[in-house]
UniProtKB/TrEMBL annotation:
GO terms for biological process: phosphoenolpyruvate-dependent sugar phosphotransferase system. It comes from the Bacteria. Keywords: Cytoplasm, Kinase, Phosphotransferase system, Transferase, Transport. It is found in: Cytoplasm. This is PTS system, ascorbate-specific IIA component. The lineage of its organism: Bacteria, Pseudomonadati, Pseudomonadota, Gammaproteobacteria, Enterobacterales. One of its GO terms (molecular function) is kinase activity. Residues 1-143 form the PTS EIIA type-2 domain. The keyword Kinase applies.
Length: 144
């Protein structure tokens, strides 16, 4: 679901594009997608707006599988300072979880796994406040 190198804490993004690029580049660094996929994530934001800001403080940028997804994976970027994406209800964003899926079924599975993790109060607290990337990784790899 996630590679250790796809986790970044307190990333210094100042714009939505910088935050999306961080999430995409973390997927790229863990061989989950191509550079074209990362650019498509940013292009989707420009074309469709902040549709992927799905809850208060939470964004899940992604692109279509055929735009360069290689494996199903998530990246985890916690921003140093929240960033406004332009969403009327869910701004500003602190957590950016990039998604790479090679098909619709994988996309749905990743989102279901994330919803399960985010609904656990302890896990969500860890996501927001831990200074240890290994603790974040552990939340993804251990059943709660």
């Amino acid at each position: 679901m996630i590679a250790r190198q796809a986790i970044q804490l307190d990333h210094p993004a100042n714009t939505p594009e910088q935050a999306i690029l961080a999430a995409g580049n973390a997927l790229l660094a863990s061989d989950a997608c191509t550079e074209r996929y990362v650019q498509a994530m940013v292009d989707n934001f420009h074309q469709f707006g902040p549709y992927f800001v799905i809850a208060p403080g939470l964004a899940m940028p992604h692109a279509r599988p055929e735009q360069g997804a290689l494996t199903p994976q998530i990246s985890f970027i916690r921003l140093r300072q929240p960033v406004a994406f332009g969403h009327s209800d869910n701004d500003p964003v602190s957590l950016v979880l990039g998604l790479s899926a090679t098909g619709q079924d994988q996309h749905i599975q990743l989102i279901q796994q994330l919803v399960t993790l985010l609904s656990n109060e302890h896990t969500y607290h860890t996501f927001l406040h831990s200074t240890d990337a290994e603790a974040i990784f552990s939340c993804f790899t251990h059943k709660n």
